[in-house]
Amino acid sequence: MAAGFREGFVEADGFRIRYMEAGEGPALVHLHGAGGLRLTPAHELLNRAYRVVAFEMPGFGASPENTRTRDMAELAQTMAAATKALGLDRFNLMGTSFGGKTALWLGLQKPECVLALVLEAPAAIRPPGAAPPAGTPEEMARRLFAHPERQPPLPAIDPQQAAKQTAFVRRVFGPPRDPDLEARLPGLAPPTLALFGTLDTMIPPDLGHLYKEFIPDCHLVFVYEEGERPKLIKASALVTSPSTSIRREPTRSTRNPTGNCATTDRMLATVRAKPSSTKPMPSCAFRKGNSGGRTRL
Q1: Which of 28-37, 85-94, 120-129, 257-266 has the lowest mean pLDDT?
Q2: Which residues share a beta bridge with 218?
Q3: Do the Cβ atoms of 231 and 262 come closer than 8 Å?
Q4: In 3D, which of 70, 118, 82 has the Cα closest to residue 8?
Q5: Rounded Cα gap, residues 29 and 92, in angstroms
Q6: Which CATH architecture has domain 6-296?
Q7: Which pLDDT value is given to residue 44?
Q8: How many CB atoms lie within 10 A of CB 74?
Q9: Of 172, 210, 224, 174, which is closest to residue 67 (Cα–Cα)?
Q10: Which residues touch 261 (CB under 8 Å, ≥6 apart)?
Q11: What's the rounded Cα separation, in Å, for the pair 137 and 168?
């Protein structure tokens, strides 16, 4: 568990919803993926600048089986009620994988509440026949990480809890392509950042162009030579900082000691200090660069 987080519960929409909270400053709400809530050191990076509220959505973790929520739109309504019950009138919103689809629905339903939206390997658009992640911790590590041998083992999960979560996700997730959601995305108001790992086998990065096509204010970031998990949420911590914005400049190809590609001979993202301005930008807001809103890290 990430250090400094405290556990809380909130009553919302007929559910008792668990959350973990740390930090001070502008609110940043995180909605987890299909594997449930797991705090990481990246959450610690985020809570240095934000009041981070990481929810455990109904039907996950130790919560009772969720047989009431019918679809992702309803789940988003429940999470919107949870944010309201915590007194979060306006907040930045980040969703991971399954939580990315939930976050999109929430952003559509409550545009007046969401300052900015970060989608980490979002699963709102999936390859045909794609199924929610499932398997042993070792199998999940191979699917989630480009280099699983470099990662600490994932914590074991109770088989009954895993079965409960998987059944819930499969019931509410909907088809790989949701025509109702996609028809609404052109009306998504909050500025949106979509992050993809170039070696992600669960959420292929080539799906990113669809988010760019559907969402009017969408910026794509491709994290080079990474899978779904290791660097994406850390990149989120970097680019959502209120003191940074994304720019591009040509760089020379280098590699870091772990073998991950750090830069290429293309136009890459570099984080630069934002110039002072008399008109402050909203917390977690970001600016698109001048090459079509696509970036590689």
Answers
A1: 257-266
A2: 192
A3: no
A4: 82
A5: 6
A6: 3-Layer(aba) Sandwich (3.40)
A7: 87
A8: 14
A9: 172
A10: 224, 225, 253, 255
A11: 19
Contact, 33 vs 202, CB < 8 A? no
> What per-residue confidence (pLDDT) applies to 167?
93
Domain map (residue ranges) of the chain: 6-296
Q: Tell me the CB-side half-sphere exposure of residue 213, using CA atoms within 13 A.
A: 8
Could you count the other beta carbons within 10 Å of the beta carbon of residue 276? 6
Sheet with 91-96: list strands edge to edge.
Answer: 6-12, 15-22, 51-56, 27-31, 91-96, 114-120, 192-197, 218-223, 294-296
Rounded to the nearest 5°, which phi and psi values hold at 36? Answer: 95, 180
Q: Please report the DSSP string for 20-50 in residue order.
A: EEE--SSEEEEE--TT-----HHHHHHTTTS
Average pLDDT of the residues in 91-97: 94
Rounded to 5°, the CA angle 181-183-185 comes to 70
Entry pTM: 0.79
Nearest CA-CA partner of 159 in 138, 140, 135: 135
Does residue 135 or residue 190 have the better pLDDT? 190
Ranking 128-137, 260-269, 270-279 by mean pLDDT, the lowest is 260-269
